[in-house]
Amino acid sequence: MAHWLFKSEPATWSWDQQVAAGEGGTDWNGVRNHLAKQQMMAMQVGERGFFYHSNEGKAVVGIVEVIRPYYPDHTDASGRFGMVDVRAVEALPRPVSLDAIKAEPGLKEMVLVNNSRLSVQPVTEAEWRLVRAMGGLG
Predict the structure, then answer these.
(1) Residue 67: what are its φ and ψ, rounded to 5°?
(2) For the segment 12-34, what is each residue's pLDDT rounded down to a tens digit?
(3) Planar angle of CA 46, 50, 54, nearest 5 degrees
(4) Residue 68 CA to chain centroid, in angstroms?
């Protein structure tokens, strides 16, 4: 199974709001980047991703699970983009900051380090394990 990273500005959609959405989760809409679109098209139900607060906080704060595969985004009038649905799985006991990720040699190739603007990103198995451990999920 693949792993992912979903970025959201907490003022727009926060981890607390994701948790409050409950087991039914929510759609991950509004992505308007073709590379991020391709990432979402590749996602399978059951795959997990990091929930990353961008701009404010700049940290991985939780883990989400894909609960519905790629489908058309109702907020896209052009009809070119889609979305997936995700639900909150668990919070990281310790948020993992972007600074901590950049300081970790084992994460130097992580997409977040090298293309921090991309809103949906793949995460390798090694990166997944390392960030989870840094966040207290060992």
Answers:
(1) -115, -10
(2) 999 999 999 999 999 999 999 99
(3) 145
(4) 15
What's the half-sphere exposure (Cβ side, CA atoms, 13 Å) at 27? 13
| Predicted TM-score (pTM) above 0.85 | yes
Cα distance from N-terminal residue to C-terminal residue, the chain: 18
pLDDT surpassing 80 at residue 116: no
Instruction: Could you please state the CATH topology (level 3) that the domain comprising 3-135 is classified under.
Output: ph1033 like fold (3.10.590)
Distance between CA 108 and CA 29 in Å, rounded? Answer: 29
What pLDDT is attached to residue 112? 96
Instruction: Report the candidate in 74, 28, 75, 72 with the shortest Cα–Cα distance to residue 47.
Output: 28
Distance from C-alpha of 5 to C-alpha of 53, rounded to nearest angstrom: 10
The full set of domain ranges for the chain reads 3-135
